[in-house]
Specification:
Residues 1-19 form the signal peptide. Pfam families: Peptidase_M19 (PF01244). Keywords: Signal. The protein has 393 residues and is of the alpha/beta class. It folds into two domains: 24-267 and 310-389, TIM Barrel, CATH 3.20.20.140; 270-307. It has helices at 24-32, 42-48, 64-70, 83-87, 91-108, 122-125, 148-155, 187-199, 210-219, 244-252, 263-266, 268-286, 291-304, 312-326, 354-363, 368-389; strands at 35-40, 72-80, 113-115, 131-133, 135-138, 158-162, 202-204, 225-229, 256-259, 331-333. The chain has a five-stranded parallel beta sheet, with helices on both faces. Strands 8-9-10 form a three-stranded parallel beta sheet. Strand 5, helix 7 and strand 6 (158-162) form a beta-alpha-beta unit. It binds zinc ion. Zinc ion binds at residues 1-2, 138, 207, 228, 339. Residues 1-2, 138, 207, 228, 339 line the site of zinc ion.
C-alpha cells in the first residue's frame, strides 16, 4: 500500500508476541505447501535504507531466514512508484532501480533467491530451499505514454502491473481519489490492458476504482488478480477494498482476490481514519500548506488515531467471507508486508508468521487441500492461465 513518504516507520516486534504457538501440523503444512504472497513492498525500502535481505533483518518484514521459517516460497516483490514520482518524471528511473535491486539480490544470493518469470518454474527453482522472487509493478506510471514500455518491462521481468496507485494516472482512475478522471479506464489504459494480455502480464486491479475494474472485465476474457486488497464488507465505503459484487465478477472471470494483512484493510475505523488522513493532507497541499505543516498535522493525527490491535482472526474472517462469497478457488494472500508501516495483526508481523495464518485457518475448519489453494495454489493456477493465453511473437 505504502503510506506517505514521511509516515513514521513503526518497527515490528518481530513475531515475539504470539498469543499462542501454532500447532506442529500447521507449521508442517506451512513448510510443505507452496506459499505465494503476491505483495511485499521490500524493494523500495531496501533502496532507501540499504539492507541485505539475504540475512536476518529484524527491522524489516521480509528477509530470507524468516521467509524460510514461515514457509514462504514465492514472494512477489513490489516495484512501487508513487503518483508523485510519476508526476515529477521520476517513476521510470525509480522502477528500473528497484528491478535492478531485486535482480542483483537474486544474483548475489543465488543459493537463497531466484527470479521467477513463469509459474512453470516454481517446482524446479524452489529446490534447495530457495525463495522465488517474481516482480509486480505497483503503479503503471513508469510505462509513461509509450505502449512499447509494457514489453520493455516484461523483458525486465515484470509479471503483473497494478495499473494505478494513489492518483488517477494516464491508464486508470484510482480508488484513493474522491473524483475520477476517466470514469474508469482511459483509452490508453485499454491499450495497456490488451498489450499486457498479449504478453502474459497479469492485470492487477488492486488500487483501482470500481469503474476501472468493471471496464477491464468488459475488455478482456483473461483473468485478473487483486494482488493486495481486503473485503469492503468489513470496511464500508473504503473504496480501496473489494466490493462484494465486484469480487464476484473478478471470480466469474476466473481471477483471484489476494487478501491483505494490514490493519487498515481489516478494520472499519482504521480504514475510515486512513481515508480522512489522506484526504485532509490532499486538501492541505491544494491550499498551499508547507511540507512541515503537513508532517506536523499527520504526526498528531497518527497519535490521535493509533492502529487497532488485531489478531489472526481478522485476516481469517476476511478470507472466510471471500471464500463463502466467491468460492475456494478464487481467494489467496497478498500480505503487503513492508508496505503498511508495521500496522499488522499481532501474530502476523512478518514472513516468519505464515504458520499462524495456517493455524487460524485450521481452527476455522479449513482442510489441508483448501488451505493449500488459499496459500498459493489458486494464484499459481491463475498465473498459468494468463500465461497460456498470452500471444507473444
Ligand atoms: Zn498498495
Amino acid at each position: 500500500m505504502r503510506r506517505f513518504a514521511f509516515a513514521v516507520l513503526a518497527l515490528s516486534i518481530a513475531g515475539s508476541l504470539h498469543a499462542s504457538e501454532p500447532t506442529d501440523v500447521a507449521k508442517k503444512l506451512a513448510q510443505d505447501a507452496v506459499i505465494v504472497d503476491t505483495h511485499i513492498d521490500a524493494p523500495e525500502l531496501a533502496l532507501d535504507e540499504w539492507h541485505d535481505l539475504g540475512k536476518r533483518t529484524p527491522e524489516r518484514e521480509f528477509d530470507y531466514p524468516r521467509a524460510r521459517e514461515g514457509g514462504l516460497d514465492v514472494a512477489w516483490m513490489s516495484i512501487y512508484t508513487s503518483h508523485d514520482a510519476d508526476e515529477t518524471g521520476k517513476a521510470w528511473t525509480l522502477a528500473n532501480n528497484q528491478i535492478d535491486f531485486v535482480t542483483s539480490l537474486a544474483t548475489h544470493h543465488s543459493d537463497k533467491f531466484a527470479l521467477l518469470l513463469s509459474p512453470k518454474d516454481v517446482d524446479r527453482q524452489r529446490e534447495g530451499g530457495r525463495v522465488l522472487l517474481p516482480m509486480g509493478m505497483e503503479n503503471g506510471g513508469p510505462i509513461g505514454d509509450d505502449i512499447k514500455n509494457v514489453e520493455f518491462f516484461y523483458n525486465r521481468g515484470i509479471r503483473y502491473i497494478t495499473l494505478a496507485h494513489g492518483g488517477n494516472n494516464r491508464i486508470s482512475d484510482s480508488s484513493y481519489q474522491r473524483k475520477g478522471k476517466w470514469g474508469g479506464l482511459s483509452p490508453f489504459g485499454e491499450q495497456v490492458v490488451k498489450e499486457m494480455n498479449r504478453l502474459g502480464i497479469i492485470v492487477d486491479v488492486s488500487h483501482l476504482s470500481d469503474e476501472a475494474v468493471r471496464d477491464i472485465l468488459k475488455l478482456t476474457d483473461v483473468p485478473v488478480i487483486a494482488s493486495h486488497s481486503g473485503m469492503r464488507h468489513f470496511t464500508p465505503n473504503f473504496m480501496r477494498n473489494m466490493d462484494d459484487s465486484l469480487a464476484k465478477e473478478v471470480a466469474a472471470h476466473g481471477g483471484v482476490i489476494q487478501i491483505s494483512f494490514g490493519t487498515v484493510f481489516l478494520d472499519a475505523d482504521a480504514a475510515k481514519a486512513f481515508d480522512t488522513r489522506r484526504w485532509t493532507l490532499e486538501d492541505m497541499k491544494a491550499a498551499g500548506k508547507s511540507q512541515a505543516e503537513m508532517e506536523a498535522w499527520a504526526d498528531q493525527w497518527k497519535k490521535d488515531h493509533p492502529a487497532p490491535v488485531l489478531h489472526t482472526d481478522a485476516v481469517v474472517d476476511q478470507i472466510d467471507h471471500a471464500v463463502k462469497l466467491v468460492g475456494i478457488d478464487h481467494v489467496g494472500i497478498g500480505s503487503d508486508f513492508d508496505g503498511v508501516s508495521g500496522e499488522l495483526p499481532v501474530e502476523l508481523k512478518s514472513v516468519a508468521d505464515f504458520p499462524n495464518l495456517v493455524d487460524g485457518l485450521m481452527k476455522r475448519g479449513y482442510k489441508d487441500a483448501d488451505i493449500r489453494k488459499i496459500l498459493g495454489g489458486n494464484m499459481l493456477r491463475v498465473w498459468g492461465e494468463i500465461e497460456a493465453k498470452a500471444q507473444r511473437k
